[in-house]
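Researcher: I'd like a candidate sequence for this fold, 194 residues long. If you have to choose between options at a position, lean toward the conservative one.
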């Protein structure tokens, strides 16, 4: 009988924080209608012995539409699963991420960045200080880019346009720097006015 030895399995996950940011950006849609200035009550009086008397006055109606945006995701967390020796032998793991949808009433851009410079680690071994850059991302069939704390553009659009993109992750898991334990890294997606 041949016995096979595999390293203890590790669990990994990505957590997301979603933010819509613009200096004048509000969540949802807000419509306000009121006279443009506080106006005194208006009265029109007409007196005529015939039915030709006409009475009229003008009023102004105004609206304020704030900077309004919506950023949503199909999931708030992506599990990379429990890794095994096949994954470690391959050195990386490709995982489908969430679908991100954005829309705004102004020209906008969505960026992605790491919420920390390194993955958090819980395990019996010393923390390997796995860099956030070991998580690589892409949209569609584009080239993978290393995640950084500086941020990079995921998608953008014109005022009124909506965009939905699906992220794919490729995470580096080298044998030497992947001790058994639980790993996680925060990922922040931000919508801003360009």
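Model: Candidate sequence:
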């Amino acid at each position: 009988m041949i016995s096979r030895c595999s390293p203890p399995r590790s669990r990994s996950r990505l957590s997301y924080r979603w933010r819509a940011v613009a200096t004048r950006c509000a969540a949802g849609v807000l419509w306000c209608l009121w006279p443009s200035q506080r106006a005194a009550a208006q009265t029109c009086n007409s007196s005529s012995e015939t039915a030709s008397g006409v009475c009229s006055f003008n009023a102004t109606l105004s609206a304020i539409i704030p900077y309004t945006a919506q950023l949503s995701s199909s999931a708030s967390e992506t599990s990379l699963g429990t890794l095994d020796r096949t994954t470690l032998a391959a050195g990386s793991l490709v995982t489908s991420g969430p679908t991100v949808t954005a829309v705004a009433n102004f020209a906008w851009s969505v960026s992605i960045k790491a919420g920390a410079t390194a993955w958090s680690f819980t395990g019996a071994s010393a923390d390997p200080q796995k860099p956030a850059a070991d998580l690589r991302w892409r949209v569609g069939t584009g080239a993978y880019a290393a995640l950084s704390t500086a941020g990079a553009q995921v998608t953008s659009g014109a005022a009124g346009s909506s965009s939905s993109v699906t992220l794919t992750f490729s995470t580096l898991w080298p044998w030497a720097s992947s001790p058994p334990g639980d790993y996680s890294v925060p990922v922040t997606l931000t919508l801003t006015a360009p």
